Amino acid sequence: MSTLQQIKNGMTQAWGGLVEGWQHLYQRAANAITHFSKGKEDDEESRELAARSTGWGVLASEVYDDADKVVVRLEAPGM
Predict the structure, then answer these.
(1) For residues 50 and 43, what is the distance between their CA atoms, to the nearest angstrom?
(2) Residue 35 three-state SS
(3) Could you tell me which residues are beta bridge partners of residue 57?
(4) Would you say which domain of life the source belongs to (predicted)?
(5) E-assigned strands of the chain?
(6) Which residues contact 37 (CB under 8 A, 6 or more apart)?
């Protein structure tokens, strides 16, 4: 096998691994993305910020269990 063919095969395998990794990441993160919409009672500054943003984001959360309870901590804008 020529050196060029070996390089081609190596690049093909590397590209396949990269694509597979991105697909796996996308599948795991697809449900983590949340759509935010502006509220009816927002002030002018909030409306301007909402107009400049994409409206999508990821909520930061933490889940852990104690001896007698499950604790969920969620950072939700506006709450």
Answers:
(1) 11
(2) strand
(3) 34
(4) Bacteria
(5) 33-35, 56-58, 60-65, 70-75
(6) 50, 55
**pLDDT score at 16:** 93
| Torsion, CA 15, CA 34, CA 78, CA 48, rounded to 10 | 70
The whole-model pTM stands at 0.40
**The pLDDT of residue 48:** 75
Provide the CA 78 distance to its chain's centre, in angstroms.
20
Are the CB atoms for 36 and 13 separated by under 8 Å?
no
Q: For residues 33 and 26, is the Cβ–Cβ distance under 8 A?
A: no
Strands 60-65, 70-75: pairing kind: antiparallel
The owner of tokens 């509220």 is: 39
